Amino acid sequence: MNEHPILGQVVLGYCPMIGRQRTITATRLTVFPQRPEATPDARDLLQALGGCWPEGGEPLVLNLAGESLLRDALACEPPLHMSLEVPAFMAADAQHEAALAALHARGNTLYLKGRPATELPRAALACFRQSIIEFADDRRSGPEAAGGAVRGVAFVQSGVTRASDVEESFRRGAVAVLGWPIDEPVTRGHGKAVAPDLSVIVELINRVDRQESIDRLEAVLTNDPTLAFRLVRYINSAAFGLRVEIGSFRHAIMMLGYQKLKRWLALLLASASTDPSMKPVMFSAVRRGLFMEELVRSAGDEQMSSEVFICGVFSLLDCMMAQPFEQLLRSIPVPQDVHDALVHGSGRFRPYLDLVRAVEQESLFDIRSAAESLMLSHAEINRALLRALATARQLD
What we know:
Elements: E1 10-19, E2 24-33, H1 42-52, E3 60-64, H2 67-74, E4 82-87, H3 88-91, H4 97-106, E5 110-113, H5 122-125, E6 130-134, E7 154-158, H6 163-172, E8 176-178, H7 196-209, H8 214-221, H9 225-235, H10 249-270, H11 279-296, H12 302-314, H13 317-321, H14 325-328, H15 336-344, H16 350-360, H17 364-374, H18 378-395
Parallel strand pairs: 2-3, 3-4, 4-5, 5-6, 6-7, 7-8
Antiparallel strand pairs: 1-2, 1-8
Helix pairs in contact: 7-8, 7-10, 9-10, 10-12, 11-12, 11-18, 12-15, 16-17
């Protein structure tokens, strides 16, 4: 679904849009032309992205970096579940007025990016559902104070780099923030007490690592039957692709084997927190694991795929459990390559983590640098990203 040649002409980055309830309200995809002097075909791009982002689930917001590419996209008819960001300077330009009005009348959602230098005409302003304002550029002291983002338009706050920025953004009246400060250093001593269900998952991972008998593994779950249900639900999801429905934990072990079961326990551990503020972190952890797995899929090495998946999924455990990796991984067995990447920032999985972080930060320079170090083409990276995001939507 995502083999379109246009994916070799662009560089993709992504980040989530997160609402007040800490749920994902949309996914933003930033699209850079691979060569500045060449403009990819906007219609082909929209068609390719529409093919791997069907309706249902959170909408897709496109940030098309390049005035000519965005201008061409405005003249097309994007699918209604795909929104477009329009920089303030283009929104204020009368030559785009008709295109914006046509898309608005058609039902397309448009986001106004940045603060206009002058007040927009009422007709132009009515085309936009929300504005996107940088945290550092938002000078308001409160949601109703003078100097607001754009008169009468709800706003999304971008450029948040700390947890305190998130709280301040919502205090100012933001309906959502763009991105989440998931890489803040862990500085909270020895961390939070591990919740009971997390303790059970950690114990299961240890027992699976020792390849204990099915009876002993099942015994761990007797005190937490909901955990077994959640694991079976994950394995039966469309993302896993099994042809036979799994009916029990014992059945899962018999069908999957210990290696694949450990992978899904890792996923369960990274998504088991009940802390609302951890929802965006869990969202990112799952997508990191799936993305890293897709990046190595062509190598055909099943063990490497499993290990790199665990590396991505566990790469935010320090944030979720408020413990440094060196301490955290004493109780959770991981392969040596995963340990080296997370504890020491070294080894063969580190470059994949660097690439994933660059894509999350939508940093063109860093994406190119990481791609070169791994000798991966942008087409390969883009396909891997889109497959990972599509799989993650099936798990949500």
